[in-house]
Design goal:
This protein is α/β, with parallel strands linked by helices. The protein folds into two domains: 135 residues, Aspartate Aminotransferase, domain 1; 275 residues, Type I PLP-dependent aspartate aminotransferase-like (Major domain) (Aspartate Aminotransferase, domain 2). The strands form three sheets. Strands 4-10-9-8-7-5-6 form a seven-stranded mixed β-sheet, with helices on both faces. A four-stranded mixed β-sheet has the order 1-2-3-13. A four-stranded antiparallel β-sheet has the order 11-12-15-14. A hairpin with a 2-residue loop joins strand 14 and strand 15. Helix 5 crosses helix 11. Bound molecules: pyridoxal-5'-phosphate. Pyridoxal-5'-phosphate binds next to helix 5.
């Protein structure tokens, strides 16, 4: 699609999480994409090193997804999800439930990861209300990112995401993050740090376990720059939750659908939560959609409490289970299965990680943390946090590669369709860009 940045105004669109002024002085628009490549508005070829925003393991513009969405739109462009629905929503929920850990037989559709987090918070509250529990405290973690709605900001452990928004939910207790400055360049799960899970026990000891409703964690903290859990850490959180009737929620918005091994982090680490949130790769990023899945037990406690004929869960969105999103989700999950995307991710991971860790001695690199098909490459700060990362992101783009940066950390998460030659191309462009940084 032609777009002339000289004649079209860039002023009106207020871009999210963007230095709008800087961007509009030096715009970088994507006008087309296919597979692992995108095309910018000047006609340049850009390789996608972050699957967009961890969204598209099967590549951009997958024809089967386009066709499925097109077909669904011929059937119906909208159905009210309150008290009615359409066949694709049931089909997707069933397909998803078959992928999830045993007992996760109930799926609630939303439109984003942030909505998934708010929905999970309300599911936890509804469960404890139905149980007659008086639990109003939530536990989260420093450096956590759980989206941008008020629930997610309340759980957020990233200062910039909180500091302009003081009126968030009360009664949130923070565990420490798991990054260890004395143990850099860790590949996979750190061997040390399991004791950090005792922060949850300390919350129990301080406030009383019976006051804590749930503990929310990203099994691998993603947006902060890929922090894999120390060996034994998630197991210990699970144990403390079990001992105290606390629900464990895994935010799998990034880790879901094979990103760090297994189909979900719950499989990869062998720890099963009570509630899982997901989004992004659910539709290969093609149509906005998120989901919250839970067990028979939690679902039944909430449902059984409602009077016959009454709504069980007073929650939902106008676009929950939209037909276009369901069609995209069904097509994406079929592609992941039919083209063995989970297997491809597992096979490519060692090559990808070997390649990324070759940057370990680069003078600009402070730390690298990688697991599965995700790696955080943290640059040395120039004293102004985020400035060097922001520059790297722009330079990298003009060198022909897209990477998502959080502050000074570039977060690589290649598509699962990437070949070794694509990984080589990414590393070449990344190195060239880092060489040019000051
Ligand atoms: C772990 C996690 N949770 C929630 C979200 C929010 O998702 P969304 O941007 O779709 O609202 C994100 C987004 O990156 C995420 O990484």
């Amino acid at each position: 699609m032609a777009f002339d940045v000289k004649t079209n105004s860039l002023a009106e669109y207020w871009m999210p999480f963007t230095d709008n002024k800087g961007f509009k002085e030096n715009p970088r628009l994507i006008t087309q994409a296919s597979g692992v490549y995108m095309t910018d508005h000047k006609g340049g070829k850009v390789i996608d090193g972050s699957s967009g925003l961890f969204c598209s393991p099967a590549g951009h513009c997958h024809p089967k997804i386009i066709e499925a969405v097109h077909d669904a739109m011929q059937m119906t462009t909208y159905v009210s999800p309150f008290g009615s629905s359409h066949p694709l929503s049931f089909a997707l929920a069933e397909k998803l439930a078959r992928l999830l850990p045993e007992d996760f037989n109930h799926v609630f559709f939303v439109n984003s990861g942030s909505e998934a987090i708010d929905t999970a918070l309300k599911m936890v509250m509804a469960y404890h209300s139905a149980m007659g529990n008086d639990r109003t405290r939530f536990v989260s973690r420093e450096r956590a990112y759980h989206g941008v709605n008020i629930g997610g900001v309340s759980l957020s452990g990233l200062v910039n995401n909180r500091k302009s928004f003081p009126a968030v939910m009360p009664n949130i207790v923070m565990m420490r993050h798991t990054w260890n400055a004395d143990e850099l360049m860790v590949r996979g799960q750190p061997q040390t740090g399991v004791e950090l899970a005792e922060d949850l026990q300390r919350a129990v000891d301080t406030f009383g376990g019976q006051t804590i409703a749930a503990c929310f964690v990203e099994p691998v903290a993603g947006s902060t720059g890929i922090l894999a859990p120390p060996v034994g850490y998630l197991e210990r959180l699970r144990q403390i939750c079990d001992e105290n009737g606390i629900l464990l929620v895994f935010d799998e918005v990034i880790t879901g659908f094979g990103r760090i091994g297994g189909k979900f982090a719950a499989d990869a680490f062998g720890v099963t939560p009570d509630i899982m949130t997901m989004a992004k790769a659910l539709t290969n990023g093609s149509i906005p959609m998120g989901a919250v899945a839970t067990t028979d037990n939690i679902h039944d406690v909430i449902s059984d409490k409602a009077a016959p004929g009454a709504i069980e869960f007073f929650h939902g969105y106008t676009y929950s289970g939209h037909p276009a999103a369901c069609a995209a989700g069904l097509a994406a999950l079929s592609i992941y299965e039919d083209d063995d995307m989970y297997g491809r991710a597992a096979t490519m991971s060692p090559y990808f990680l070997d390649s990324v860790y070759q940057l370990r001695d680069h003078p600009m690199v402070k730390d690298i943390r990688g697991i599965g098909m995700a790696a955080g490459v943290e640059l040395k700060s120039n004293g102004k946090p985020g400035q060097r990362g922001g520059q790297a992101q722009v330079d990298l783009f003009w060198n022909g590669m897209h990477v998502k940066f959080t502050g000074d950390c570039g977060i690589l998460s290649p598509m699962f369709i990437s070949e070794k030659s694509h990984i080589d191309e990414m590393m070449e462009k990344l190195k060239k860009t880092l060489d040019g940084l000051t």
